[in-house]
Amino acid sequence: MRIAVIGTGLIGALHARHLARHPACTLVAVCDTDIAKVQQVAGGLGCRAHADFATLIATEELDAVTIATP
What we know:
By secondary structure, the protein is α/β, with parallel strands linked by helices. Helix content is about 45%, strand content about 25%.
């Protein structure tokens, strides 16, 4: 399953870490308007970073998205 996470705060980063380790998932990308944070999370997990959710949805081939925003 190809998954992305929108939001890289405390909970979003936690979701991304767990999904990146899950054997049935491929963490494709993370997305957040905080450029520094999204690049940090993506770099640590080996996935792509997006600053805009519309671009994420339009450009990535995904099966699911986790939304972890306030």
